[in-house]
Write a structure and sequence with these properties.
This protein has two domains: 248 residues, Rossmann fold, CATH 3.40.50.450; 247 residues, Phosphofructokinase domain (Rossmann fold). It is an alpha/beta fold. β3, α3 and β4 form a beta-alpha-beta unit. The chain has a nine-stranded mixed β-sheet with strand order 1-2-13-12-7-6-3-4-5, sandwiched between helices. It has a four-stranded parallel β-sheet with strand order 9-10-8-11, with helices on both faces. A two-stranded antiparallel ribbon has the order 14-15. 48% of the residues are buried. The chain is built from 21 helices and 15 strands. α11 crosses α17 and α13 packs across α15. 44% of the residues lie in helices and 16% in strands. Pathway: Carbohydrate degradation; glycolysis; D-glyceraldehyde 3-phosphate and glycerone phosphate from D-glucose: step 3/4. This is Pyrophosphate--fructose 6-phosphate 1-phosphotransferase. GO terms for molecular function: 6-phosphofructokinase activity; ATP binding; diphosphate-fructose-6-phosphate 1-phosphotransferase activity; metal ion binding. One of its GO terms (cellular component) is cytosol. Keywords: Cytoplasm, Glycolysis, Kinase, Magnesium, Metal-binding, Transferase.
């Protein structure tokens, strides 16, 4: 594989490990844990892996080599910067235990386990991918592991390769799968450990112990760079309002972080919209207010950030989507058989009166997008809904009304953007390069400690990596019951933007100034090399949440 000059220099970067992982380690157990909610339900579903203690590692003198162990690894779900470093850290970790340990990668996600598609990851292969973006070392996929048939089929290849531990690198749904698989293998005495690693650029897989998911830092820096470029162009041309949709189906962490980095005129936080019970019209009015106010100063331009999942957080639309999910889970075949020209009428006839009214009020295109195929977890594919265009068009109509009333005489021209895949496979920032490598190495330590049903954990992340606290938390600790495909199922609870949290409060304090004035900042490209205060910064979200100084 031919490498560019940047790739060659990046490959030479040496990730830093927490000091506790640089010799022998011992396990220190904390108190027994319980699930985030629905404790009895989760306990009944996970009798063998529920209530396990949190653990942390402490450094001890290096021990003699242990027996070699074969480990499998799966990349699951969407890409996130740093996945290759997780695998590199895992590889180095098990080789440190015993040089004869072997690592097998299952190809194209969980489906590779079920279909017995894999390859051994050797030092030669691993070295090609250190500090690189993407998941192309083994590929990823979205196959959902949930049936006994899948578990047993996977166990066949694990036994054939003498794999004693399986590491699943993924988001909340993928780690839910890991917890279910760990429980099943424990229940039948399969002799296979299952360890999870927290991955998602959306930033919604975290709690008091999982301070951030990997990839969030890099992705938001990439998006912030491009938003800053657009703001510079916006401030130069002075003639467009840019509506920018950002990744974040279930939470607004990416939008909030990018707002803190770039200071746009408007940033919508979905969780605030839901909490305040705002209507779509009220959201539109808020943006129109900024357009009108800036036009009075001759500034017929601006930037609006929109989380991709916004539409699901508008209470009336959220209720509609919930009913649509249940309806299409039961009557998907009936719906698909209907002439597309008559599907809207059929849906209206199936919905409750309140939700039918909401559905009918939506533009035809948006209403149609709400009935498109669900993802494997039964969710609306909100990335397909062009919320940025919907809002810009509705703002335009509102401005026409204000102009007719003599309340607006500016110019309104728009540009639309959706930043999604641009940030998912970037080379990891120094923070993510270090964090991911340490997560993989920690997973190896969890395996050596004989743990299963745990997620690799690192804390103290606003300090230098040598001071990070390594350990693991039971995956069941993060779970609750939610409705999926019309049924209540155990899932990891998503972490939403906390409106009383430090990152949002910082944003809320500044946003009115940003709204009416041009306060843009231009973060520029990710800085891999240079002074520590430039290239080693964690995200502002993490800084404000931890209320500590950046290292």
């Amino acid at each position: 594989m031919k490498k560019s000059a940047l790739q060659q220099a990046r490959a030479a970067y040496k990730p830093q490990l927490p000091i506790v992982l640089t010799g022998g380690v011992k396990v220190v157990e904390g108190e027994a844990t319980q699930s985030a909610d629905n404790q009895e339900d989760i306990k009944n579903l996970f009798p063998n892996t529920y209530g396990l203690p949190e653990i942390r590692f402490e450094k001890v003198p290096a021990e003699e080599s242990v027996e070699p162990i074969n480990v499998g690894v799966i990349l699951s779900g969407g890409q996130a910067p740093g996945g290759h470093n997780v695998i590199s850290g895992l590889f180095d970790g098990i080789k440190n235990l015993n040089k004869k340990s072997r690592l097998y990668g299952f190809l194209m996600g969980p489906g590779g386990l079920v279909d017995h598609k894999y390859k051994e990851l050797t030092a030669e292969i691993i070295d090609e991918y250190r500090n690189t973006g993407g998941f192309d070392i083994i590929g990823s996929g979205r196959t959902k592991l949930e049936t006994k048939e899948q578990f047993d089929k996977g166990l066949e290849i694990l036994k054939e390769l003498d794999i004693k531990a399986l590491v699943i690198i993924g988001g909340d749904d993928s780690n839910t799968n890991a917890a279910i698989l760990a429980e099943y293998y424990k229940a039948i005495g399969a002799g296979v450990q299952v360890i999870g690693v927290p991955k998602t650029i959306d930033g919604d897989l975290k709690n008091n112990v999982i301070e951030t998911s990997f990839g969030f830092d890099t992705a938001t820096k990439v998006y912030s760079e491009v938003i800053g470029n657009i703001q510079r162009d916006c401030n130069s041309a002075k003639k467009y309002w840019h509506f920018i949709k950002l990744m974040g189906r279930s939470a607004s962490h990416i939008a909030l972080e990018c707002a803190l980095q770039c200071q746009p005129n408007v940033c919508i936080i979905s969780e605030e919209v839901e909490t305040k019970n705002l209507t779509l019209d009220q959201v539109v009015d808020d943006i129109a207010d900024a357009v009108v106010a800036r036009a009075k100063d001759g500034n017929n331009y601006g930037v609006v950030l929109i989380p991709e999942g916004l539409i699901e957080f508008i209470p009336a639309v959220k209720a509609l989507i919930s009913e649509l999910n249940d309806l299409l889970a039961v009557k998907a075949e009936e719906f698909a058989a209907i002439d597309p020209e008559k599907q809207r009428e059929w849906v209206l006839g199936q919905l409750s009166e309140a939700n039918a009214k909401t559905y009918e009020s939506l533009p035809a295109g948006v209403a149609r997008q709400l009935t498109l195929d669900r993802d494997p977890h039964g969710n609306v594919q909100v990335s397909l809904i062009e919320t940025e265009k919907l809002l810009s068009e509705m703002v335009g109509k509102r401005l026409e009304q204000l102009a007719a009333e003599g309340k607006y005489n500016g110019k309104y021209a728009t540009m639309h953007h959706f930043f999604g895949y641009e940030g998912r496979c970037a080379d990891p920032s120094n923070f993510d390069a270090n964090y991911c490598y340490a997560l993989g190495y920690t997973a190896a330590c969890l395996i050596a400690a004989g743990k299963t049903g745990y997620m690799s954990s690192l804390r103290n992340l606003t300090f230098a990596p040598v001071n990070w606290i390594a350990g693991g938390i039971p995956i069941t600790m993060m779970m609750n019951m939610e409705r999926r495909h019309g049924e209540m199922k155990p899932v990891i609870r998503k972490a939403l933007v906390e409106l009383d949290g430090a990152p949002f409060l910082k944003f809320a304090k500044e946003r009115n100034t940003w709204k009416y004035n041009t306060c843009y900042t231009y973060p520029g490209p990710i800085q891999y090399f240079g002074p520590s205060e430039v290239c080693d910064l964690p995200s502002l979200t993490l800084v404000y949440e931890q209320k500590r100084r950046r290292y």
